[in-house]
Amino acid sequence: MTLRRLIVYASGIAAAGVIAALPASAAITVMGSGLAQACYKAAEFNGDPRTAVAECTKALEQQALTPADRAATYINRGILRARSDDTDGALADYDTGLRINPQLAEGYIDRGATYIVLKRYEQALADIDKGLSLGTKKPHIAYYDRAIVHEAQGNIRAAYEDYKKAVALAPDFQLAIEQLHRFKVVRKPATNGT
Question: Could you tell me the sign of the dihedral formed by the alpha carbons of 173, 178, 180, 186, in that order?
């Protein structure tokens, strides 16, 4: 019996040790209306981060929020701060939101995305895995971000598998589709049963 080995190659700048893709984020829904809702919408739908951070801050300071909405608003403001290249502020917001509600899967995934930008890959991987284990509502984003970590760490096969999983979960997820186009899969016959 001849066994085959599956070899996966990635082309582009990631093969040279540079991140080829930017991480994605997952906003957390806030119920009701008002500034916290506006904060959520800006985080979810790519609103202007500078304006939206101010709305999020006003929501946290002026609105009577449930603990769940307060935690979500911190996470959403963290997303917006990360988009403004304020990684320290983003991490502080993620930490605060996760202290209020440590079951927010998306908060771990978003913090993991910020760790990717900071090239703190072990922390990113731990947070993304935690978000997956908590049952994120957007697992395709988690798998996409985890693929970026795997690729940055040189684990090309795991990166390929996670990009594929992201596309399987969300067939129209363009970020993952674009990354998969960089990969080439070659089947080679194994020799001597290896």
Answer: positive
Distance CA 35, CA 152 (A): 37
How many Å apart are CA 189 and CA 186, to the nearest integer?
10
20-37 confidence digits (pLDDT tens): 466 666 666 665 568 888
The secondary structure of 133-175 as a DSSP string is HTT-S-HHHHHHHHHHHHHHTT-HHHHHHHHHHHHHH-TT-HH
| Segment 57-110, tens digit of pLDDT | 999 999 999 999 999 999 999 999 999 999 999 999 999 999 999 999 999 999
User: CA-CA distance, 56 to 66, in Å (whole number)?
Assistant: 15
Classify residue 137 as exposed, middle or buried by CB count within 10 Å of its CB (0-12, 13-18, 19+): exposed
**Pair of tokens at residue 89:** 């502020």
42 Cβ partners below 8 Å, 6+ apart?
48, 49, 51, 52, 55, 56, 76, 80
How would you label 26-44 residue by residue, b for 16+ Cβ within 10 Å and e otherwise?
Answer: bbbebeeebbbbbbbbbbb
pTM for the whole structure:
0.83
DSSP, collapsed to helix, strand or coil, labels residue 21 as coil
